[in-house]
Amino acid sequence: MNTTETKLIQEKISGYRKELFSLIQRLIQIRSYSGEEQEIVEFILSKMREYGFDEAFADGLGNAVGRIGNGPVKILFDAHIDTVKVTEGENWTYPPFEGKIVDGKIYGRGAVDEKPAMAGYLIAGKVLKEMYGNQPLPFTLYAVGSVLEEDCDGYPLLHLIEKEGIRPDYVLLGEPTDLRVYRGQRGRMEVEIATHGKSAHGAHNQQGINAIYKMAKIVSEIEQLDANLQPVEPLGKGSITVSDISSKAPSLCSVPDYCRIHIDRRLTVGETQELVVQQLQEIAQKLGIKANIWIPMYRGKSWKGTEFEQDAYFPTWILEEEHPLVQAALDSAA
Ligand SMILES: [Zn+2]
After folding, report:
1. Is 82 a catalytic residue?
2. 248 CA to centre of ligand 1 in angstroms
3. What is the pLDDT of residues 222-274, one digit of tens each?
């Protein structure tokens, strides 16, 4: 696209400012908790059809997928359209599902993360169709309103790629980044560890082996590991947090023979699931404790009734600064 075309696109988009705002408001007004996105998906698809998208459909999982053009370069714009729930304790200045505009700011659940991105993609599609109609384009643009993202980060797009056969060359995520271009994201995974002991009556505890005591040593080493993790630029430091603990004993008056912890692990550049599991195995080995270490599964069901499961592992990703997508994003944001 030459500069005159780019300028024209920008002018046209500016002309739709009001429509963009009312779209964002409408998207906020439709409550769309993870797994309950049917209404918002139907609204988005109806807008895609109204704006002349070449295709608009809900995929097998329930993502809203719109397509413009049929060119060789495949570009995917993604905005997750689910939100976390509004809980009773939250203190809202304006009602969370009203989409109220005060002093040029829109308030509501999803007003930042990330319904405005979806509205932007819709208007972008509308302008593209107005300017180019059915002329052949050098790209295929997919605008995706993905579901269930708050529950299971990577799954909706994994579904698109693996189950729907959409294989984009470039992906833009609409996550809020303070209006800056981010070219990577720390990964995240969960791990569970279990230790086993031997139960015995509390009055004769020397006849038992306490699974909690074994785990306590492991927990203490994990705290050390967290302090020793090194930053890797540009994503900084990973982290490891013991987030839950439970145990089993025949009664509260006996030695527990089972203890389990849950771990939240954030991953920086170069940290993979293999490395994480290996670090934990080394801790157990060093302590001479036999422990089971595993990555739990996420299981869920979409609004369409589609069941899915995935390892609780969402790898780090990073693009080089020189990557054409990063450069194009920086140009557009300037
Ligand atoms: Zn988000």
Report:
1. yes
2. 37
3. 999 999 999 999 999 999 999 999 999 999 999 999 999 999 999 999 999 99
Q: What are phi and psi of 183, to 5 degrees?
A: -115, 15
333 backbone dihedrals φ, ψ, rounded to 5°: -80, -20
**pTM listed for this prediction:** 0.88
CA of 84 to the centre of ligand 1 (A): 9
Q: Ligand 1: distance of its center to the CA of 186 in Å?
A: 14
User: What confidence tens digit (pLDDT) does each residue in 23-61 have?
Assistant: 999 999 999 999 999 999 999 999 999 999 999 999 999
Judge residue 170's burial from the number of C-beta atoms within 10 Å of its C-beta, 0-12 exposed, 13-18 middle, 19 or more buried.
middle
CA 80 to ligand 1 centroid distance, Å: 6
Tokens matching residue 71: 């060119």
Q: Of the listed 59, 78, 114, 149, which one is catalytic?
A: 149
Q: Which domains does the chain have, with CATH numbers?
A: 3-84+95-183+320-333 (3.40.630.10), 185-299 (3.30.70.360)
